[in-house]
Structure formats: structure tokens, C-alpha cells
Amino acid sequence: MTENGHTAASNVALDVPAPVSLREAMAQFATGVTVITTPGQSCHGMTANAFNSVSLEPPLVLCCVSHTSRMHAAITDAGRFAVSLLGADQENLARYFADKRRPGGVAQFDTVDWVAGPHTGAPLLSGSLAWLECELTEAYAGGDHSVFLGRVLSSLRNTAGKALVFYNGSFHRVA
């Protein structure tokens, strides 16, 4: 340690490139890929990678959703949502639920294999690595997004399969 509290390694000059946007910097952070769904009159699906676990006791997860997206109103209206954690062979579903040109409402699920979650009624996408059904407990303002906190009502896991991740602007498969 040096006098200023830095280690010798921290005194090495870094080859720092020009500043970039937050979006460009965060592209270097690999994330899992999910599809968030809502049931009933607000039935909707959306690809999301702004998702994470928060607490094991009580079981809580969060997802971040833009104020201007259809999913924002759908989660707020339904008060429930489900999360399908996509597997490596489900890139087509990630792309489909990210496409704003797909049909709205329950019709967007007509070409997708799914079952209604027993606790929420929200679509659970077949073949995913895991599924969570959640009850909305809190919504926090976070800039141009809301942070939705959900209490996990049910969680299921598929023991077969490999993960789909999003990194540097494209999908990748974890071996």
C-alpha cells in the first residue's frame, strides 16, 4: 500500500478510451435474457434483461421497465407478472418479444408454446430454463424506468438446457 491508500497496481496508467454513453458501457455487462409476461386483460409479453433477484426471504425479484412501454401499463394494471428465463435455444423468442410489430394482447401468444401460470394466469413460455410467478409489491421511480418489485409466488426450474445471455449488443449461448 502506498501513502494515499492505493496499491502499486493502481498506479499503473490505464489505456482509457474516449467516454461513451451509459448504454455503450453497460453493453459490456453480460446479462441473462428473460421474457416478462402479464395475464388477463393486460396480457402482454416483453423481452427484458433488466431483471434480478433481490431477496431470498422473503423471495423478491425486480424488473425495470420503461415508462413508455406497453409492459409498464400491463404490470401496473395486472398487479402480477411472470418471468421465463430463456434457454440458449430460445433466441427466437427473445427477438419476437422484443419486436414492437408483433400483435398486441393475447394474440401475441398465438404462435408461442406456453401455459398459464397457476398462481397468476400469466403465460409461462415452454422450454425455458426457469419460471417465476410474482405479485407486484412495489414500484419505484428510476429515471425513465420504473423498478417493479415482485414477491415470488412460485418458482420452477428446468434441469436441462444452457443459458441465453446478452452481451455487447448480441445474443450468446453459455456452454
From TrEMBL:
Keywords: Oxidoreductase. Pfam families: Flavin_Reduct (PF01613). Residues 26-173 form the Flavin reductase like domain. GO terms for molecular function: FMN binding; riboflavin reductase (NADPH) activity. It comes from the Bacteria. It comes from Saccharopolyspora antimicrobica. This is Flavin reductase (DIM6/NTAB) family NADH-FMN oxidoreductase RutF. SMART domains: Flavin_Reduct. SUPFAM superfamilies: FMN-binding split barrel.
